[in-house]
Write a structure and sequence with these properties.
7-stranded mixed beta sheet, 12 helices
Length: about 260
């Protein structure tokens, strides 16, 4: 699939759900946002880029702490939600730009820090996106990444990727911590801090947020019920379909 076709699929999938992501409790709160505040503390005079900003929760967290935030997303509807919410909260240091992660319309070494939350699993070419991140970060600047993570083990990984793409056809891949370490290193970024955790997901909210069609929801439930007890235990599968996913958050510095 071409970058343009994939971008169109993401836009079609997420634009109608912009307000749902603004009010989603999974996206509006979390330990990762609290940790983001701590990790952004050194950037009080900094210019921050939020890639795949979605409904803007990471941008809103960063806004009071830094000089300027550029909220960047593929979906113009998501960016409209960010703009309206930022204005209502009087966060006048947030501006919005539209585009894809693999081709950033910014100057070399423009930003002190790049952040991204729950977006990278939609990027068609993560290594290319990380090369772009390296390009736009100032020497010594940082990348702070937050996302759902693959467990790594094939038994768990294939099940996770299967239900993710059924629920959301624009899903590309969740990556393991080891895969992130390799991709970041190859792009010229050195991971300094990495935190893993788990995120509890209410099944009904998880599928409703994406307006997953009923037949596909049924297929996901079949996969949940058909897997081994080992997989069910790992993901803490509940009778109603709710489960837990691995997460990771890391801070990497641009070398040179």
């Amino acid at each position: 699939m071409t970058h343009r076709a994939h971008a169109q699929r993401i836009s079609e999938q997420f634009s109608p759900q912009a307000n749902a992501y603004l009010t989603s409790t999974v996206h509006a709160a979390g330990e990762d946002l609290q940790r983001l505040q701590q990790w952004l503390a050194p950037f009080g005079d900094g210019y921050i880029l939020d890639i795949g900003c979605g409904a803007g929760h990471a941008s809103f967290t960063a806004s009071p702490l830094v000089k300027q935030v550029t909220a960047y997303d593929l979906s113009t509807d998501m960016l409209s939600v960010v703009k309206e919410t930022a204005e209502s909260r009087q966060m006048m240091n947030i501006d919005c730009r539209q585009g894809i992660a693999e081709s950033l319309p910014f100057d070399d070494q423009q930003f002190d820090c790049v952040i991204s939350r729950y977006s990278a699993h939609h990027w068609q070419d993560v290594p290319q996106a990380l090369r772009e991140v390296f390009r736009v970060i100032k020497p010594g600047g940082k990348l702070i990444m937050m996302d759902i993570a693959s467990p790594g083990a094939p038994l768990y990984d294939i099940w996770l990727q299967s239900i993710e793409v059924l629920r959301d056809p624009s899903h590309v891949r969740n990556y393991s911590p080891g895969e992130w370490l390799q991709m970041a290193t190859e792009s010229g970024l050195r991971i300094e801090q990495l935190v893993t955790g788990q995120l509890a997901l209410d099944f009904q909210q998880w599928v409703s947020r994406m307006k997953t069609p009923a037949p596909t929801v049924a297929a996901i439930r079949t996969l949940q019920q058909a897997v081994s007890g080992e997989v069910q235990a790992y993901f803490q599968l509940q009778d109603d379909g709710s489960f837990s996913s691995d997460t990771l958050m890391f801070c990497a510095q641009r070398r040179g």
